[in-house]
Amino acid sequence: MKNPIVGIVMGSASDVQVMEEAVRVLEKFGVAFEVRILSAHRTPDESAAYFKGLAGRGIKVLIAGAGWAAHLAGAAAANTTIPVIGVPIDSSPLNGMDALLATVQMPPGIPVATVAVGKGGAYNAGILAVQILSLIDSDLAARFAGYKKEMADEVISRRDKEVQEYLNGRNSR
Question: pTM for the whole thing?
C-alpha cells in the first residue's frame, strides 16, 4: 500500500491465515499498511534492519505475530521506538501457550502490547492499532467511534429481540 502507517510482520508464511484478521480490520478502516514475513531466529539481521527503519519511514504502529518461541514482537520492540502489538499464534504443540508467554513476558523498558492467542487476537491487534492511530487522526477516530456505536446497537437490537422471543414463549404456555 502507498504510505503505510502500520506494519504487520509474521514469523512464517504459515501465520498468514491468522494475521489476515488484522489485515481485514485495517482495510475496513482504510488504514494503509504493509506486510512482511520475517523471523527473529532465521532472518535476524534482516528483521533488525526492518524494525530499526520503521519510524523513519512513517510507520506508527507494528503488529507482530509469531508462534512457537515467538520472539518476533520482542525483537521488534527492542529495535524500534514505535508501539508494538504482539499476536501469539497457536501453531505449536502447546497450542500457543508458549507464544503467549514469550510475547507477554517482556523485560521492563521493552513493552509489547499483547493480545489474545490466534485469530481473535490478530483481529484485536488491528482494532488496537486503529485505537492508537485515532489519537492522531480525528477522521479515523470518528470512524472508530461509529464502529463502536454499531457494535453496541447490534448487541442491544439482538438482546431486545431475544428478550421479546423469550417473553412470547412464556406467554404461550
Answer: 0.91
Let me know if domain 6-136 sits in CATH 3.40.50.1970. yes
CB atoms within 10 A of CB 58: 10
| Helix orientation angle between 119-134 and 16-28, rounded to the nearest 10 degrees | 30
Cell of residue 136, nine digits: 492522531
Question: Dihedral of CA 118/64/81/130: which sign?
Answer: negative
**Is 48 within 8 Å of 77 (Cβ atoms)?**
no
What is the rounded CA–CA span in Å between residue 81 and residue 52? 8
CA 119 centroid distance within chain: 9
C-alpha cell, 93: 504443540
Q: Is 89 helix (H, G, I), strand (E, B) or coil?
A: coil
Nearest to 137 by CA among 72, 65, 58, 49: 58
- For residue range 12-65, what is the model confidence (pLDDT) as tens digits? 999 999 999 999 999 999 999 999 999 999 999 999 999 999 999 999 999 999
- Cβ atoms of 133 and 5 within 8 Å: the answer is yes
For residue 60, give the nearest of 149, 140, 142, 143 by alpha carbon: 140
